Amino acid sequence: MNTKTQVHPYHYDRNGIKAGILHIGVGNFHRAHEEYYTNRLLEYPDQQEWGICGAMLLPGDERLYRILKRQDCEYTLTVCGRDGHDEAYRIGSLVGLLWGVEAPEAVLDKIADRDIRIISMTITEGGYNIEKSTGEFMFSDRDVQHDLKNPQSPRTVFGFIAEGLRRRMTAGNGPVTILSCDNLQHNGNTARKAFTSFIQTQDKELALWVKDNVTFPNSMVDRITPATRPEDVIRLNEKNGTDDNAPVYCEDFIQWVIEDNFIAGRPAWENVGVEFTSDVTGYENMKLSLLNASHTLLSYPSFLSGYRKVDDAMHDERIAKFVRTFMDKDITPYVPAPGNTDLDLYKQTLVERFGNRSVSDQISRLCFDGISKFPVYVMPNLIKMIRDHADLTRVAYLIAAYRHYLKYRTDDNGAVFEIAEPWMTKEDETLTASDNPMDFLGLSAFKSTDLKQSPEFVKLYAGMVENIRSKGAMATLETILK
């Protein structure tokens, strides 16, 4: 029996596509999200000036860059249905690819190119170099200091954008939109803060030009896209009958809501399902508070309990109940439904998405970089919950589990693991290593409020720390589900 998935081809002529978008950070999420939408949009004859040229800036990007270049920037995307039915697509919307380490001048000239009217980016939540407690740009970074002093040989995304925009200004090549596609609340505002702070310090004349010629719309992005491991490459090629060394797979749910603030024109992405709005705040709040916070909530307890796949964890009724109760009791009071959203349906869909066996996301991916995630996904609503004297049990358990994960690096079954916290400071390491669990509440991730000032939180948290240490994460979870 032939079980291969048919790969849907694109029907436009790639030779006739012009790149109107430069995207910085060509990772899996971008290739499953913006490229997917754009690949569909290019089927419209009047939209073919909106192809995407990718730019990779990091030394670690070389492997994927070489593979995609060998494949003429084409790849396959497998969309995994919650009903077990998958659809595969050949993606052709990435019509060019540059690597800043190899060809920095080509990247700078592309930023300055008149045809480029949007510079989009996925540079991760921590990539904007904003200090979490103050909200200010961090100038102390060594590469940032290099770029301020050596504008023509940049190392950071800030240096590349500044020099590219300077060339654009000098050539009279017109305005441009910088569109963040990262998982941040008010990501456009964050991008504006980061880039304008850097540019104002480096070049005041350019800063004045940017004020009048660059817009930074906020956007909300959503599509669960796991990392593609070597075994996934083999699996996807066998399933699809393809020979693709850079395949991507993702869930069937997709959403993109963007503030319609494009100074140099934009694609008609609404033709393929993107929603444009005057204010993305309500959508951001819903997604970050429900999807992202729930991902964080389930990640550390599930990992400590021995689970490594999100779908396996969500098929454990205890974890599923924990997540759904968190959504219903802790978060829903603080999330007004935006637009025509049915909040109950949205939450039910989230539970189904998390349990999607075809996607099978890695819990380690959700655990990655908690220092950056807690301030964005968890703390805003926790502050409100403390203010309102709400039930803090589930969030106290989460933070106790996060401490155990960072400090002991051993799960309930005795398996030892490594952590990945690129933004953890030396002070954070000291606070985590301390045997006094109250010290952990001073972590940089929690700086937006003093958790030690809430007696209710402190009492619950201290009890959870002790129970997880003595009984294990799952046994402790069972006590709060009763």
Question: Nutshell version of this structure?
Answer:
This protein is an alpha/beta fold.
Could you walk me through the main structural features you see in this protein, from its secondary elements to its overall organization?
There is one protein chain. With 482 residues, the chain is α/β, with parallel strands linked by helices. The protein is built from 20 helices and 13 strands. It has helices spanning 28-32, 34-41, 62-70, 104-112, 142-149, 157-171, 187-202, 204-213, 230-240, 281-304, 310-314, 317-331, 343-354, 363-367, 370-387, 393-408, 426-433, 437-440, 455-471, 473-481; strands spanning 7-8, 19-24, 51-56, 75-80, 86-91, 94-99, 118-121, 176-180, 214-215, 219-222, 248-251, 255-259, 275-277. The protein has a six-stranded parallel beta sheet, sandwiched between helices. Helix 10 (281-304) packs antiparallel against helix 12, helix 10 crosses helix 15 (370-387) and helix 10 (281-304) packs across helix 16 (393-408). The mean pLDDT is 96.
* Helix content, binned percent: 40-55%
Number of helices: 20
Radius of gyration: 23 Å
From the N-terminal CA to the C-terminal CA, the straight-line distance is 48 Å
Question: Strand count, sense and closure of the main sheet?
Answer: 6 strands, parallel
List the helices and strands and how they pair.
Elements: E1 7-8, E2 19-24, H1 28-32, H2 34-41, E3 51-56, H3 62-70, E4 75-80, E5 86-91, E6 94-99, H4 104-112, E7 118-121, H5 142-149, H6 157-171, E8 176-180, H7 187-202, H8 204-213, E9 214-215, E10 219-222, H9 230-240, E11 248-251, E12 255-259, E13 275-277, H10 281-304, H11 310-314, H12 317-331, H13 343-354, H14 363-367, H15 370-387, H16 393-408, H17 426-433, H18 437-440, H19 455-471, H20 473-481
Parallel strand pairs: 1-5, 2-3, 2-7, 3-6, 4-11, 7-8, 8-9, 12-13
Antiparallel strand pairs: 4-5, 10-12
